[in-house]
Amino acid sequence: MFINCHSFHSLRYGTLSIEELVRQAHQSGAKELVLTDINTVTGIYDFKKECEKLDIKPIAGMEVRKDDQFIYLAIAKKFSGIGEINKVITDHNCDNKELNKVAPEFDNVYVIYPMSNIPADLKENEFVGVRIDELNFLIRPEYQKYIAKMVILHPVTFSANEEYKLHKILRAIDHNTLLSKLTKREICRKSEYFISEQIITKSFERYRCIIENTKHIISQCTFDFDFAKIRNKKFYTRSKEDDLKLLSRLAYSGLEKRYGHNHEVAKKRVEKELKVINDLNFCSYFLITWDIIRYSNSMGFMHVGRGSGANSIVSYCLGITDICPLELDLYFERFLNFHRKSPPDFDIDWSWQNRDTILEYIFDRYGKDHVAFCGTNVEFKYKSIFREVGKAFGLPKDELDDLTKKPTDQHEVNSVVKAIHKYGRLLEKFPNQRSMHSCGILISEEPITSYSALEMPPKGFPIVQFDMNVAEDIGLEKFDILSQRGLGTINDTVHLIKKTRGITVDIKDTSLSKNEKKANEFLAEGKTIGCFYIESPAMRGLLRRLKCGDYRTLVAASSIIRPGVAQSGMMREYIFRHNHPDKFEYFHSVFEQHLKETYGIMVYQEDVIKIAQYFGGLSLADGDILRRAMSGKSRSIKKLQEVKANFFESCKKLGHSEPLTAEAYRQIESFAGYSFCKAHSASYAVESYQSLYLKVYYPLEFMVSVINNQGGFYRTEVYIHEARMSGGNIQPPCVNISEYKTILQEKNIFLGLMLLEGLETRIVHAIVGEREKYGKYISLEDFIRRVPVGLETIQILIFIGAFRFTGKPKNELLVEARLLLINFKPEQRGLMLIEEPVQEFRLPELKREQFEDAFDEIELIGFPVSCSPFDLLQTKYRGSVFVKDLLQYHKKQVKMLAYLISRKHVPTKKGTMYFGTWIDVHGNYFDTAHFPDSLKQYDFQGGGCYLLMGTVEVDFYFPTITIHKMAKMPMIPDPRYAYDKEKQYDIHNQIKEDVSMTQRKPYPQEHEIGLPRQKFS
After folding, report:
1. Which of 386, 483, 835, 947 is the most buried (most CB within 10 A)?
2. How many CA atoms lie within 13 A of 837 on its CB side?
3. For 943, which DSSP code?
4. CA distance linking residue 749 with residue 730, whole number of Å
5. 647 three-state secondary structure
């Protein structure tokens, strides 16, 4: 009898999860249940599974609403009816088609109107829903004629306890209003919870036909759905046979290009993979991916195929990936095998500049009816809950700020705050709104609306209403179309090299960037600022500790830096064994046999699966559970617990002792959720090497591209510093040379006008466009005549030195600008260019202090360009020890003067600690550790230069200074405010620093790891 049930997927309306809704229905004695969430079918697939667990017949539908008004219920007679309903909502969401009060012609859908919206004529499939509290209305003549077409309507929205208030809070949040201001139309009735079917039928006993109509509809509806069926586009060509022929031809053609003639090992691997791909019906999936890559190549775009797809030699031969699986012993079964329960997917990165072009191609090529982004449910989060619920209760902004910023135990104790806590806890994990998955694209055989209504977010690409987990459940494998700035940097560098040097660099030739002596030297020394994935302080420190001088070691480094590996102590142990291969024994022969490449340490997901299978004797199915537990799709220790009992039992049968088994499992368990698959690490390593190759041989072009892509671990200032260290002559913006982005002219790097925070983008384009059309500006007056800007913009350009080509000092230019703009009429701009000669002003000489330019630069772009930060210090002292000598000072105390680049916050049991990154006066980088005891007296005071005193600790060739004392060094007063003492130190607060936060614990020290270095007895 429950044909109108809402879950919390009726966003900001229903209060019941799918599981709770079905559980309560079961408790009420329901044998059939209809899920009709508002304008969505998000929950129907989970709903079907939950119903079948409790032997309830599931039926799917939707409550169609327009502007809070309940128009009609649409209940699917069979699965195709869901597609009909979805199409109506999709047309409304994506094409702004009006939702009519009268339902359209449906083939396989029952329509039930509320009594507030009865059409003049009811079609055969249409009925009127009557609530228990509406039965009295049936005595009226106007309703008598509809009784034969009426059904029982008892909506369910919340539990029969405190959740009605929760429903009202959700409605207040949705309408951005107070609880006290909600209208009846905006909330459900107080009766919308489960009651027994006996009570419902007893209420309608005078109207047997209404009961029978309801039962008839329920009996006629089914929700048949095969979760095992693949629903992606079936064929790339016209048939499975033709797909296999095309895929085979492409694979063997690529085989010859990649491996030459007669490479038997590669050929056999291709044959084996093609059979599995065909048997599992993945030919079209490979071909569609190949087609996208083919288009990308035709446009001259760079891409990186990464993730487990790089385990496939077929994907390597097709050009989807650039990782040779034979070189790194990557096994195909990690990507695709007969035991794998979940579908694989390709992860493909493009430059952030090109991704939208790729997306447009996919939507055009495969049809908008068959392509959509995965959705994702954005849940109510801790801070947002307090703010949203607090607003509903009417708290003022300052109290809302307190709730979100302070820990809960510091909140004021009163009845309102208690209520906010109470209902806030109930809202945790509720979906709040739907959003677009960051990268997952679905391409279906049937129209995508067969499975979901679509929505159109601001980005402009339609999304399905369910998330990637549901997509996977119902047989829709996603294509991950990602973007990153690292590829933009590589691509831009290659083009810039062609432009500045006339050299064509085939950066896709990965042999270029795997065995270059000079590049390997940079790698081993951690000289990787600006390089994708390997530029962070932690990664540079790891490279130095490993003396990482080759591609294979970098592949391992890309994985062991991951939180799970590092936190478990495996990273520390790997560093030790890499540097001392003669000082340990493999603690079991299986570890030596299968993990020799990584010194008996599990570094990759594949290593964990190997140990589970070869040491623990687990089945491939259990191995797949392990893989999922360690992947981003299902990060959970809980998943590992599912196979723990099997592992211990199997190990016992194999004769392993309890302590031996426990140690092996401890190592496995430490990986949950954070390890990389080896192919993923290898893909990262290739891109890292490509970046490094360009940095080593074309440093200025590379650093300019890093600056323009606005990406990386550090702020722009650091990359400009790195460009200067590479021989670049850094120039402030100039209206006659600079463009929107930073440009390179021989060794001169002219900073882009985009770096001026106070300058609007449209003005920048106007400056550059006017110059390109009519030539360079010959004076300030000429500029004012030609470009529509006001005094504020002119001042910014003058202060940054953009008119230095005139040879006039800034003071004089400022006076001149004011004189010019007094009588200037913008409407005469075009005429004045023809009619009046440029006017020359004679002004008295105005002197400027030495460092005024530097303070102008700090104010406008955040850092000095015309000098070093050290030049602005009051002291002439530059430190007693410099970075180049640190290795000689192991366990010794040093005093250094340094400029702060970045610091990373790490919580410990004793309080906050930081890891700092600095440069000395020579521009070289070094790292520091700041423990809680030291920070109590000597804390960070913002960006700038500091005097540091601490002890040097050299750990495998990498020096770190443990800081005991530090003090921020005073800068000279701002010379621009020599006559205004109050403002002389204002600008100093704009000196920046990079601060990153982490919740990870500090990495364990050697004595805390406990990984056996002897054979286990």
Report:
1. 386
2. 3
3. S
4. 5
5. helix
